[in-house]
Amino acid sequence: MANSAECFLRTLVVIGILSQVTSDAFDHKYNKGDPVPLYVNKVGPYCNPSETYPYYDFPFCPPDLWQEKEESLGEVLNGDRLVSAPYKLNFRLDRESQVVCRRNLTRKEVALFQTAVAKDYYLQMYYDDLPIWQFIGVAQTNNVDTFKYYLFTKVHFDIFYSRDHVIEINMSSDSSNLADLTEDKVIDIEFLYSVNWKETDLPFDTRMQKYTMFAHFPLNMKKHQFAITNSFWTIILLVGCLVALYVRVLRKDFNEYENDEELADNQGHTGWKIIHGDVFRYPKYKCCLAAAIGCGTQLFAVVLSVIIVGVAGVFHPYDRGVQKVASVIIYAITNVIAGFTAVSFYHQLEGSYSAKNLFLAGSLFCGPLFLTFCFLNTVAGIYESTAEISMGNIVKILLIWVFIALPLLLLGGTLGKMTKSEFQAPCRSTKCPREIPPLRWYRAALPQMAIAGFLPFSVFYIELYPIFASIWGFKEFTAYGVLCVFFIFLVTITALVSIGLTYLQLAAEDHQWWWRSFLCGGSTGLYVYAYCFFFYFQSEMSGFLQTSFFFGYMTCSCFGLFLLLGTVGFRASLIFVRHIYSSIKFE
């Protein structure tokens, strides 16, 4: 089954198959007494979800037969390291106080467990592809400021079955079986476990609903409804403002121009009308702008595709990295969009360095992400964390890029170069650029970016917490329908705000709107990055490993959001500028 998953990743047959989680029992059907696959996964502090370590790095009982599960690429990206467990949970066989092993813990091992208990370490297992968690111990305080540390030495499994299927499993600790780790000394520990099977009427197809209940959507429906309503009325307000602008201001200007016989002399006219000879002058660093537009268009396609796949029900809670693999594959495929968009737009701007432009489009986001990954993977390797990706799996990712992403990027660039489309400018540019009059401080780039980013961020910031909690916590985000609605709202509001600010810029006779519209559209990404600091300090994350992972990957994510929304803002502004200047005839 794992080999089939690997073959799928290489051949890219159907993304829907990604939703199937690999299992030793393909149909999940068992007879009484049959062994059911149980794997231990990883151990780590509850507050630092990226800081995880192999289960057997701690002196737990080893299995009778050591067997490492062959992992798919998704499991590797998710930091999973599945190894056979020492517990025997045969189908419908109860056990009472079964001895797993007896261990003589050295002082070093006691200190290791004591540190783990003090930092609220948890362990994770998978039983018939159902995830289970349990803290490894508990710290108790006395009346004075002293702590006593206890290790759970007995676990109890409550397993529910229906006919020949496992439906649910719960793992709990026996508070009467504790090992005192407070003193730094050698101790003897006996690890025990018990199993109790119970029949249930729940069908097999609904067994994952338990994990969906821990997601954010069902528990916060009112909050989602409030945020959606707030976003909807914000869009209505913005649309109303733009309609009023168009009807009361622009229409008046259009009518004046139709009745004006001295248009060519530009006498007595101010505002956006007088800069018609400069507004379509190609911007500086047009190669970088075209590459940013191409990369932003690709990221737009990636986000939209992942959301659509999620809405279609392909992703399931705790599916061990399926979302990450789907994102990698979709990003590789959409490189053709980046290449085509960047090169075709660059040629419309009469650019002559297509190879440089194509390289920038392919590396503008992927380059910083790869460098960040290399640094964080080195950090994980130093800490010996399961977050470290082995060289073999890195080679697999590079092969996906070399044999899929890179050829598609080149294909898109070739198609873009073959497209002989011209830039559609409704009026000619003059030979000499017009001098921009002095502007007030609030019309500068930074204040405009602050205004442009605040409104879109204020609309969807409510949805940021569940997204962050699912990425940097143990909740699973399953409300893809709600996320789709918010993504549409975010894109719409960004486009409307960019159009409004572009008009104000042109009305001030500032014709350098190209980069400004891109920066204002993408400024929401800066607000999200500022929110990262708020979320980090509100959480209990700590340590260099977790901090570097959080800010490293969130920096890349916010940069990607900046490129995506910057592209939306530029495209909307370009359509608007073309429309208003094509509505007037120039000589």
From TrEMBL:
Membrane topology: Multi-pass membrane protein
GO cellular component, one term: Golgi membrane
GO biological process, one term: protein localization to membrane
InterPro entries reported in the protein's UniProt record: EMP70
Protein name in the entry: Transmembrane 9 superfamily member
Family indicated by similarity: Belongs to the nonaspanin (TM9SF) (TC 9.A.2) family.
Keyword Transmembrane helix found: yes
Species annotation: Coffea arabica (Arabian coffee)
Signal sequence residues: 1-23
Localization, UniProt: Endosome membrane; Golgi apparatus membrane
Segments crossing the lipid bilayer: 226-247, 289-316, 328-346, 358-383, 389-411, 450-474, 480-506, 518-537, 549-577
